[in-house]
Amino acid sequence: MAEERKISMAVVRRLPRYYRYLGELLQKGVNKISSRELSEKMNVTASQIRQDLNNFGGFGQQGYGYNVEYLYEEIGKILGLHQNYKMIIVGVGNLGQAIANSNSFSRRGFKLVGLFDVNPKLIGMSIHGVEVMDVDRMEQFVKENGVEIAILTMPKTRVKETAEKLAQWGIKGLWNFSPVDLFLPENVQVENVHLSHSLMTLAYMISEAKIEEEKERH
Ligand code: NAI
């Protein structure tokens, strides 16, 4: 376990993609795969794959390749997917509802147990059997239910104070969608998701490609 902790975040950020590919291979009944085959499928160099996967103890065997199921299980363990997480959503507007309506997280052990908002029109409503509650009830709910993850999809003006309270109440991780950087005690992990950053990266790639096309034309 101590060794696993040293995996660089750059590698960790690539693991979910390996996990997805390996899961798909397993579903197709593929039991072993070489780094070359995996590299062709994933469009990553074979040496990158070997380097990444060797990080947590050479699962590959020379001349045999990787045992897909073993690798899938091990990556799942490293990612912490062998346990279940109770989650709540704070802010049940457009984005919060879209996340609540998606059932893809629960398959991986992320269980949505509560929804919280300040809007009386939303309170009492339920999405896939999960009730929208008043934020006044959040502290008790988090503590009584051992909620570990809070998804922050509320207006940015209120995020900092909410995040700080959640940290005091024992939340382990915040999935932060609001465009605010959160600085919290070390025992609370924060993962930011910014679709607009991804879109800006796409804009950059398009402008670069246009510049290249222009150069080729002249
Ligand atoms: P929205 O206005 O539809 O929903 C916000 C909800 O938060 C409302 O239901 C409102 O009643 C509730 N709310 C207000 N104060 C609250 C409080 N103190 N506690 C709990 N709930 C509270 O807004 P939308 O479009 O769903 O966006 C929500 C947040 O997500 C915004 O901060 C927005 O900037 C961000 N966002 C982030 C994206 C990303 O890619 N990271 C993409 C889209 C939005």
Describe this structure in words.
This protein has 218 residues and is an alpha/beta fold. Helices cover 44% and strands 17% of the residues. The chain contains eight helices and nine strands. It has helices at residues 9-27, 35-42, 46-54, 68-78, 94-101, 138-145, 159-168, 195-217, and strands at residues 32-33, 66-67, 85-90, 110-117, 126-127, 130-134, 149-152, 173-176, 189-192. The strands form two sheets. It has a seven-stranded mixed beta sheet. Strand 3, helix 5 (94-101) and strand 4 form a beta-alpha-beta unit. Helix 1 packs across helix 4 (68-78) and helix 2 crosses helix 3 (46-54).
Q: What topology, given as strand order, has the largest sheet?
A: 5-6-4-3-7-8-9
Total E-strand runs:
9
Bound molecules: 1,4-dihydronicotinamide adenine dinucleotide
Largest sheet composition: 7 strands, mixed
Rg of Cα set: 21 Å
Low-confidence stretches: none
Fraction in helix: 40-55%
- The residue-averaged pLDDT reads 91
The coarse overall form would be: globular
How would you spell out the order of helices and strands?
A: HEHHEHEHEEEHEHEEH
Structural class estimated from helices and strands: alpha/beta
What is the straight-line distance between the termini?
57 Å
How much of the polypeptide forms β-strand, as a percent range? 15-25%
Give the count of helical stretches: 8
